[in-house]
Amino acid sequence: MPSHDARIIRGAAIPTAVAGVVALAISTVVVGSKGLIGALVATLLVMAFFSFGQLALDRLTRNNPQMMMAAGLLVYTTQILLVAIVLAIFKNTTLFDTKVFGFTLLGCALIWTAGQVRGALKAKTFYVQTNSEDRAADRTSHPERQQ
Fold first, then answer.
1. What are phi and psi of 103, to 5 degrees?
2. Total domain count for the chain?
3. CA nearest to 62, candidates 129, 5, 136
4. How far apart are CA 70 and CA 43, in angstroms?
5. Residue 89 burial by CB count (10 A; 0-12/13-18/19+): exposed, middle or buried?
6. Which of 23, 57, 18 is nearest to 39 (CA)?
7. Which stretches of the chain are assigned E, i.e. beta strand?
8. Which residue has better confidence, 14 or 129?
9. Engineering a disulfide at 96: which of 37, 49, 131, 133 sits with its beta carbon 3.0 to 4.6 angstroms away?
10. What whole-number distance in Å separates Cα of residue 24 and Cα of residue 47?
11. Per-residue pLDDT averaged across 111-118, rounded?
12. Residue 72's domain spans which residues?
């Protein structure tokens, strides 16, 4: 994984983990142990789904960067569908407080997305070749132009 992708994941995971810890503390105080479990499951779910999504996006676009937008939409849609399936499965559970789970899931997903956008905007991804790279590419593609 390129270092800029690792920075993007870290830039999203750290604020999400901090928000998850805050949600754990608040939900434990307000709801009790069922709130603690709900917030913990939601935080881990968001961090797992969204980090695996970033890794999948990196894998899908490694050899074909032109597919970035299509792959990004596919990965994000898949993430949201998986989260919806998990919500449907745990809809009537008594294992944890579902309201705490839902609010923590929503908050962590929004914070992850904001952190990912911030990390992507701050990443210095070069998309222009320097002069030396231009000359090397020109020599390999046009040998008759060599001097």
1. -70, -40
2. 1
3. 5
4. 27
5. exposed
6. 23
7. none
8. 14
9. 37
10. 15
11. 90
12. 3-145
Taking the CA atoms of residue 50, residue 52, residue 58 and residue 61 in that order, the dihedral angle to the nearest 10 degrees is -90
Q: Considering only CA atoms, which of 83, 101, 104 is closest in space to residue 92?
A: 101
pTM score, whole prediction: 0.75
Query: How many Cα atoms occupy the beta-carbon half-sphere of 26 within 13 Å?
Result: 12
Residue type, 135: R
Asked if residue 126 lies in contact with residue 65, where contact means CB atoms within 8 angstroms, the answer is no
User: Distance between CA atoms of 96 and 102, rounded to whole angstroms?
Assistant: 11
Residue 1 has, within 13 A of its CA and on its CB side, a CA count of: 16
Task: Determine the pLDDT at residue 143.
Answer: 55
b/e per residue, 99-132, with b = 16+ CB within 10 A? ebbebbbebbbebbeebbeebeeeeeeeeeeeee
- CA nearest to 57, candidates 2, 96, 10, 13: 2
**Residue whose tokens read 């970033």:** 54
User: What would the mean pLDDT of 57-80 be, rounded to a whole number?
Assistant: 85
Contact yes or no for 32/21 (Cβ under 8 A): no
